[in-house]
Amino acid sequence: MDGWHVVGLDNGGTKDNGTVLDQDGTFLVDELIEIPSDVQLGPAAAVEALVVTMDTVVNRAGVDIAQVRAVGLDTPGPASADGVMSSKGATNFATPEWRGFDIRSALERRIGLPVVYNNDANAAALYAHHVYFGGATAQASSVSVIIGTGLGGGLIEGSTVIRGRAGMAGELGHVRISLDDGVLEPDQPMPQCNCGQFGDAESIASLTGIAKNLLPYWLTRYPEHPLHRIADPMVAAKQVRTYAEQGDEMSRKIFGQQARAIGRLLSIAANFTDPAVYFVGGGVVEAEAEFRDWFLAAVRANTVLRAEQAAVETITTVPDLDMAGARGSALAARAAVLADDSSPRATAG
C-alpha cells in the first residue's frame, strides 16, 4: 500500500490490541486483534508484548513497517501526559518496577519511531468524538466517562484531548459528587475510592466501587441473594451486571446508584465545558440492549442541565468500545504526523 501509516496500540491489564490507520484516515484493521499484554511480568516484557502487537496488526493490514511514521499508545492510568506511570503505581501496574516507569519512551527506544501517548480513557474519548462528529470535529466538544475497573474520563475540545499541565485533566472519576437526595440509601456508608477520597464518582460508578462499597451494603439487604456464595468480592462484582441484565432487583438497585452518580458527574461537567455530546462507555453499555437503554435513561434522568443545554443535549454510547482505545491512539498519532509535516521547519525543509 502506498503512502504512510500510523499504528494505534491499546495496552491493558491482560491484553493488548492494535490497529493501523492510513494517511487519509482510513482504518485498515476491522477486527479486534488481541495479544497477551504481559504487564504482570514487568515493564520489559510488557514493552515486548506491545512490539508483538504492532508487528501483528501491521502484517494483518498488509503494510510495510517502513511505511509506519508514528505509533499511538494508550494505557490505563494514572500516568503523566508523557506516559510516565504514577509513582504510587496503579491497578494494572502494581509491582514496584512499574512505579514511575516511562512506558512511552521505552517503547519509542525499542521501535525507533515517535510514540504519542494518551491514557486509555482519553484515547477512547478521542475516537468517540471522531466517529460522532466526522468532519466537524474541529468545531465540537465532548465529555466521555468510561466505566471499568475504575472510572476514566476524557475531555475533547475541537479535535484535541484536554490534558492539563500534569496530564491529569479529565480524571472525572475522582471528582467528588453530591451523594445526598437519592444517590445513597439513608443508612448506606460513605463510599471510599482506592485513591483515598470519600464520595468521588469512581467510588460508586466502577467495578471496584461495586466490589468495595455497593455490593457489601446491598447484600445485607438481600440476605438470600446467590452472590453471597461467591467469596471473592471482585468476582462477585463482575456477576452483578449479568444479574442486572436478567432484571434482578438488587443488581438493578446497584446500577441505579451508578447511573445517578454518573448523572451527577455529567451535571458538573455541563457547567465546566458545556459539551455538545456526553459519551458513556464501559461494560455497562456493552450489555443487553434492554439493560443498556434502561441505564442510559437513568443517567439522562439524573443529569441536570439548563433549559438551553437540555434542548440540544445528547447522551450516547462510545462506539466500538473494544477497539476505541487503539483507534483513538492511532488518530492521535496521525494528528501528530500531520502537525509535524505542516510545521514551519518541515515546510522550510
UniProtKB/TrEMBL annotation:
PROSITE patterns in the record: ROK
Taxonomic superkingdom: Bacteria
Similarity section: Belongs to the ROK (NagC/XylR) family.
Protein name: ROK family protein
